[in-house]
């Protein structure tokens, strides 16, 4: 029986009516659009490579164990692949409105947790694919690898004919409960005894020492953040509706800003986002000189040999975006300093071991804890910002070239806005997802990110090349 990891189970349990936790994207292609039947047959031919897409989540009775992945005996691909079209003129505004409605709707938790929408009617003879997949199935980095399931590197690629498929028998409730109890009792023991005796003790001791050192090193940062004035207007209750926007950039201009001002690409990106939040708060009359917007930045700890695996291997850091600072160079320096500190801390602690600690937690407590945390609201941060590097080579679906892709990152737990960043070929896009009622001024943030990049590029062009890391 294939059981959800503790991290994936957390995402599953945190799902609620007002907080759907799927990730998604909108990919735009050169025309003409394929037929609905051709897309369905393509996906059917690819599904054997990702058996999870024919599986659904089944909870263990009484929450005696983490939920299981089981084959859906009633799987019907026509339910998961939808077909629609844009009203004229089929421009970006119409596409954003449609995608915002589609991506804002919950997935059916009783079925395999994904959808694909074929969208016709875009201007310039283009079409799009809107895709949704629940966060408990895949994280952003693994999701980039899984794009190869639907996408081809060769426009003339051939695809095998769909194969017949028979679901495996779903285990009974009694069998699930018995298996969960046995695993709960034996899994921690197996992990503790996976290494030879003295080596296991030494390994555990070293892990505790490194964790203690990392915690001690983090205390000054946590103390500073606890006293930092936050932009409280950005957090609060979340409703069922979403606003979604995006802002585009070229990788060349981001790299030019990095070369002229220093830091990493990620530092420059976070600085541009800081300008967007500064403009937003200034427009609301809520900007103070020492105000920050604290954003959670997920970090993948997936090893290279785990690429493509269907589970989440992520941790997170919290970065204070200095929106009250008027000088963009000083904003970049502040972000760069924080990221450097986090890199040192991450080197001192095994983040993968921290993630694995969830496997020792009683499954019932895991479910209750995640749900309680989600319903209590987010007091520590105001936003989520995640950067997923995409391919630098063209991708194709049924011979049609993808020209752009825009990411969708869920919101929840009182954090009412998220920014997903995705790069493809020579471009980068910022997909901004927000609570509908809380962000009627979402375009101010989107336009502000663009202005932030422009000001950094302008400042960089006037300076000699800085030493980059």
TrEMBL record:
The pathway to which it is assigned is: Glycerolipid metabolism; triacylglycerol biosynthesis; Lipid metabolism
Keywords in alphabetical order, please: Acyltransferase, Glycerol metabolism, Lipid biosynthesis, Lipid metabolism, Transferase
Chain ranges of the O-acyltransferase WSD1-like N-terminal domain? 4-269
EC number assigned by the record: 2.3.1.20
What InterPro entries does this protein map onto?
Acyl_transf_WS/DGAT (IPR014292), CAT-like_dom_sf (IPR023213), O-acyltransferase_WSD1-like (IPR045034), O-acyltransferase_WSD1_C (IPR009721), O-acyltransferase_WSD1_N (IPR004255)
GO CC annotations, alphabetized: plasma membrane
What is one GO biological process annotated to this record? response to hypoxia
Question: What reaction does this enzyme carry out catalytically?
Answer: an acyl-CoA + a 1,2-diacyl-sn-glycerol = a triacyl-sn-glycerol + CoA
List each copy of the O-acyltransferase WSD1 C-terminal domain by range.
312-456
Q: Keyword check for Transferase, yes or no.
A: yes
Q: Which SUPFAM superfamilies match?
A: CoA-dependent acyltransferases (SSF52777)
Q: Name one GO molecular function term.
A: diacylglycerol O-acyltransferase activity
Any keyword Lipid metabolism? yes
The similarity annotation says: Belongs to the long-chain O-acyltransferase family.
Q: What is this protein called?
A: Diacylglycerol O-acyltransferase
Native source organism of the sequence: Geodermatophilus nigrescens
- Show the taxonomic lineage: Bacteria, Bacillati, Actinomycetota, Actinomycetes, Geodermatophilales
């Amino acid at each position: 029986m294939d059981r959800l990891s503790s991290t994936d189970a957390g995402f599953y349990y945190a799902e609620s009516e007002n907080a759907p936790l799927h990730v998604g994207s909108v990919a735009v292609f050169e025309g003409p659009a394929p037929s609905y039947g051709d897309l369905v047959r393509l996906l059917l031919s690819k599904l054997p490579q990702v058996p999870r897409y024919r599986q659904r989540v089944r909870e263990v009775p009484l929450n005696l164990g983490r939920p299981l992945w089981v084959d859906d005996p009633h799987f019907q691909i026509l339910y998961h692949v939808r077909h629609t079209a844009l009203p004229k003129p089929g421009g970006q505004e119409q596409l954003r409105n449609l995608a915002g409605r589609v991506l804002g709707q919950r997935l059916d938790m009783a079925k395999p947790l994904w959808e694909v929408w074929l969208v016709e009617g875009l201007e310039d003879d283009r079409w799009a694919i809107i895709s949704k997949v629940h966060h408990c199935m895949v994280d952003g980095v693994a999701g980039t690898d899984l794009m190869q399931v639907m996408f081809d590197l060769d426009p003339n690629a051939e695809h095998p004919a769909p194969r017949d498929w028979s679901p495996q028998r779903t285990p009974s409730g009694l069998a699930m409960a018995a298996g969960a109890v046995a695993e709960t009792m034996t899994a921690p023991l197996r992990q503790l005894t996976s290494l030879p005796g003295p080596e296991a003790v030494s390994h555990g001791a070293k892990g505790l020492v490194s964790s203690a050192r990392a915690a001690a090193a983090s205390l000054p940062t946590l103390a500073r953040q606890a006293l930092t004035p936050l932009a409280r207007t950005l957090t609060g209750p979340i409703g069922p509706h979403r606003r979604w926007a995006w802002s585009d950039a070229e990788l060349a201009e981001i790299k030019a800003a990095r070369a002229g001002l220093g830091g990493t690409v990620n530092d420059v990106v976070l600085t541009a986002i800081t300008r967007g939040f500064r403009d937003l708060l200034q427009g609301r009359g809520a900007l103070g000189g020492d105000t920050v917007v604290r954003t959670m930045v997920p970090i993948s700890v997936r090893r290279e040999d785990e690429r493509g695996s269907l589970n989440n291997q992520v941790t997170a850091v919290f970065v204070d975006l200095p929106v009250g600072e008027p000088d963009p160079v000083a904003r970049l320096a502040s972000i760069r300093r924080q990221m450097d500190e986090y890199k040192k801390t991450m080197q001192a602690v095994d983040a993968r071991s921290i993630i694995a600690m969830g496997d020792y937690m009683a499954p019932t407590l895991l479910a209750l804890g995640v749900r309680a945390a989600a319903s209590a609201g987010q007091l520590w941060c105001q936003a989520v910002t995640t950067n997923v590097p995409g391919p630098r080579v063209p991708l194709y679906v049924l011979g049609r070239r993808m020209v752009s892709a825009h990411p969708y990152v869920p919101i929840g737990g009182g954090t009412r806005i998220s920014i997903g960043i995705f790069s493809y070929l020579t471009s980068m896009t910022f997909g901004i997802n927000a609570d509908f009622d809380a962000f009627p001024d979402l375009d101010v943030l989107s336009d502000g990110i663009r202005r932030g990049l422009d000001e950094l590029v302008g400042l960089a062009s006037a300076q000699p090349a800085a030493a980059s890391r």
